[in-house]
Amino acid sequence: MEFFTIGVYNSTEQEYFNKLTDNNIDTFCDIRQRRGVRGAKYSFVNSNRLQAKLNELDIKYGHVIDLAPTSEIRDLQKEADAQQGVLKRDRNKLGKIFSIAYKDRILEKFDFDSFIDKLDEVGTSKVVLFCVEEKPEACHRSIVTDRLEKLGYKITHI
């Protein structure tokens, strides 16, 4: 099994879905808490539209809420972004406080063995982890993939 990550910011709809098909993604894991994006520019990743398009592309969809940061943890990053005067979509890396809180409160409780078993059960070969930030270092998916790498999985950011 091979893992990929994808963000949506600074991608068009066509570019976004081409990244999935060009990399032969067969399983899509949405690791957002809220599965919507404000505004029309990225509405194609709002849950219902996204799932319909993935179904057309024969890509399995799952919402892995247990990997999503809580509102409280996300607020820690919002505060750090505000202190640095940076917008979420322009962030280059996660704050230290967010990273520590996410690892302690989310990642340490997540059952990776069960997650991998479920992916195996549905015949997953290439799975993508999705959240909105363009750069993986600016998103919690990089923390998840750091753990997956330690477990011996190959990670590709697309």
Task: Give a written overview of the molecule.
With 158 residues, this protein is of the alpha/beta class. It has one domain. Helices cover 41% and strands 13% of the residues. It is built from six helices and five strands. The protein has helices at residues 13-22, 47-56, 71-84, 96-105, 112-121, 141-150, and strands at residues 2-6, 27-30, 60-63, 126-130, 155-157. It has a five-stranded parallel sheet, sandwiched between helices.
How do you describe this structure in short?
This protein has 158 residues and is an alpha/beta fold.
List the helices and strands and how they pair.
Blueprint: E1 2-6, H1 13-22, E2 27-30, H2 47-56, E3 60-63, H3 71-84, H4 96-105, H5 112-121, E4 126-130, H6 141-150, E5 155-157
Helix pairs in contact: 3-4
What percent of the residues sit in helical stretches (DSSP H or I)? Answer: 40-55%
Distance between the amino and carboxyl termini: 16 Å
How many domain units?
A: 1
Low-pLDDT stretches are none
Morphology call: globular
Portion of residues in beta strands equals 5-15%
SSE order in H/E notation? EHEHEHHHEHE
Structural class: alpha/beta
Order the strands across the largest sheet as they lie in space. 3-2-4-1-5
Please give the radius of gyration in angstroms: 15 Å
Biggest sheet, in brief?
5 strands, parallel
Overall pLDDT level: 95
**What oligomeric state do the depicted chains represent?**
single chain
